[in-house]
Amino acid sequence: MPDNAKLAAPPEIRPAGANPVLVEVTRGATVESRHRGSAVIVDAAGTVVAHWGDHTQPVYPRSAIKPLQAIPLVESGAAEAFGLGDTEIALACASHGGEKAHTEAVKRWLATIGLGVADLECGAQWPSHEDTGRAMAKADETPSALHNNCSGKHAGFLATAVHMEEKTKGYVRFEHKVQQRILGTLEAMCGLGLGDAPRGIDGCAIPTIAFPLENIAYGMARFGAPDELAPARAAACRRIADAVAAQPFMVAGTDRYCTEVMRVTGRAALVKTGAEGVFCASLPEHRLGVALKCDDGTKRAAEVMMSAVLRHIGVLTRDMQAKLADWITIPVTNRNGERVGEIRAAAAFKG
Amino acid sequence: MPDNAKLAAPPEIRPAGANPVLVEVTRGATVESRHRGSAVIVDAAGTVVAHWGDHTQPVYPRSAIKPLQAIPLVESGAAEAFGLGDTEIALACASHGGEKAHTEAVKRWLATIGLGVADLECGAQWPSHEDTGRAMAKADETPSALHNNCSGKHAGFLATAVHMEEKTKGYVRFEHKVQQRILGTLEAMCGLGLGDAPRGIDGCAIPTIAFPLENIAYGMARFGAPDELAPARAAACRRIADAVAAQPFMVAGTDRYCTEVMRVTGRAALVKTGAEGVFCASLPEHRLGVALKCDDGTKRAAEVMMSAVLRHIGVLTRDMQAKLADWITIPVTNRNGERVGEIRAAAAFKG
Q1: Strand partners, A48
Q2: Which of A4, A25, A30, A32 has the highest number of chain B CBs within 10 A, making it the mutation to test binding with B?
Q3: Fewer C-beta neighbours within 10 Å, C or N terminus of chain A?
Q4: Residues A279-334: pLDDT tens digits?
């Protein structure tokens, strides 16, 4: 600054207790952007094994707990009654890219239960898979609720409602039995009451309920190591984990973190992304669950955080790390394709 | 957590000196995500008038200083020699959406200087304006360097090089006279030497140089109140400000913050976005410059921060605030179009 600059007093507002910087974005040799957040690893007995930042903060889990939200679909007997396979059950856990394989499968599934796209209450969305969106534009198509990344989850809600002989209309509302059944499942799996928990509306119109990050991880740990749960619930958890492991493409899609990581890790890790920087994992062999939240809600950081936690636990073999290199440290490129920086785990994750 | 949970020790890594939370993202009654950052207001004499967070941190200004990078285009006489109008000069300051009006104007401009799209070294990019991208897909078109949001800035670089009789090839390189001329302009406008400053490569392949946020703001203040600069430079600053005020659409596009704010504020505020959460403003009537950076690089937060700073300074009349309501507090909607939350200025900006 020039010599005549008179500096203002230092700022008063520097809240204590900030979560640590967990991800750095570099350009050249300089850190350009920083992502703070919290992450927690919990075992199936509820013990916090490790954490970064505030693991007690209430977080909206968003789509990162779709595997837990899918439990009633199997546990109720709906999946069996309708003869659903791995594809449908994986789609019930999906935030898919709206690719043809996703939307066609949801469409067929809805027909199986005697319903159609008009029964979906999630709203329409252009596919996040850009090539699919462009192919649709070229064919003069516009997106429907089938292209909503949550359409498989909603098909699962509808299948459960039909099987339970409940009115399907309004199935997204908090008071509907479909949502109340999920609420009860979350309470039991995550070990806390949620009746008075903060509640918001998710992007796909269903309720999302905020509760501590450590409880989200606890639910994911028990999902992957369900032996102490009631037999029907344990069987449902195992069926869902099997379906996701068999059909990782259905859970996300082309060039997507969840699909790529699960293709490489197989049964060792079930990983699931959620909006606003939430990510969950279930690690059955380790009997661990993971939940994390990037404070600022950014996907790129949540992905790098999840990779760092998986490495911390020792889930990723050397070979897996080589295959997933660009999901552990994400390259930053310019529009000529040159690497000009990277999105990497910060020092908080080292050692 | 269940009673048997043994909590791990609190984390060691909580870096001191975090920037304050400046933007909150809510869902229902709960804050779901938080954006930290820094912002500074500096006057044309170099005095720091107000700041939030660390205003001395070096920041890559990215595209937020395009108005300063455009100075040599006018000052060199190139703009006059080629008969450039408001459209071209505004495009030289643009991060445009790749809409037809943008790309056609850049194409015409290149023809005027005897060059074509193959001379642009910025790389190709699908338009950020989604409807334009879909219309292109429908017409079986693929993007060229004209659609790169920086194509107007690059056309300005090429025009300057042609006018100065410099070889145009390699104009994006740090050593090229085009970039060295801009470096010298930045040093003079922002009041510091940049020879040893951290350097990275921008998304469009040109150098970007990190320097303190307060110096970026100082340069923007002098740009808007250039009376103490040399006459040719002062005239260039005024010509650029006039062009941007006359053609705010050319600087960004449909439904874009910069365009919408400048349409409403007229000559009172020149605002310019940059990648990774940087934003600059020049407020000629107040003889002030603004520079801000969202720590995590998020656009939505940088926009809300800029609106909060403009309100703090008193740039936005009550009528302007009404017109810009959705850029001051950005609605969060679900895919049925229902408002389920908002992106708002945090308490740090109040009072």
Answers
A1: A42
A2: A32
A3: C
A4: 999 999 999 999 999 999 999 999 999 999 999 999 999 999 999 999 999 999 99
Paired with A303 in beta bridges are none
Which spans in chain B are helix H?
66-69, 71-75, 78-81, 86-92, 100-112, 130-138, 151-163, 177-190, 213-224, 231-246, 248-251, 257-265, 299-313, 318-323, 325-328
Q: Which two tokens stand for residue A323?
A: 């295959």
Residue A2: pLDDT band (50, 70, 90) is very low
- Specify which residues B331 forms β-bridges with: B342
Q: What gap in Å lies between CA A37 and CA B18, rounded to an integer?
A: 13
Residue the block writes with tokens 């062999």: A285
Give just the sign of the alpha carbon dihedral A198, A203, A207, A209: negative
Kindly list the averaged pLDDT for each block of 10 residues, start to end, along chain B of length 351: 34 58 97 97 97 96 98 98 98 98 98 98 97 97 98 98 98 98 98 96 97 98 98 98 98 98 97 98 98 98 98 97 98 97 94 53
Long-range pairs of B258-266 with CB within 8 A, sequence gap ≥ 24: B258/B95, B260/B324, B260/B327, B261/B306, B261/B307, B261/B310, B261/B324, B261/B327, B264/B320, B264/B323, B264/B324, B265/B310, B265/B315, B265/B316, B265/B320
Q: What is the ipTM of this complex?
A: 0.94
Single-letter amino acid code for the residue at A43:
D
In order of A20, B53, B325, B341, the CA distances from A42 in angstroms are: 19, 35, 43, 30
Taking only residues 131 to 150 of chain B, the set having a beta carbon closer than 8 angstroms to any beta carbon of chain A reads 133-135, 137-138, 140, 148
Contact B32 A5 (CB under 8 A): no
- A31-71: per-residue pLDDT in tens? 999 999 999 999 999 999 999 999 999 999 999 999 999 99
Block residue for tokens 């078109």: B141
Nearest Cα residue to B29 out of A197, A199, A277: A199
Of B7, B48, B134, the CB nearest to A5: B48
- Which residues from A are below 8 Å from B208, CB to CB? 27
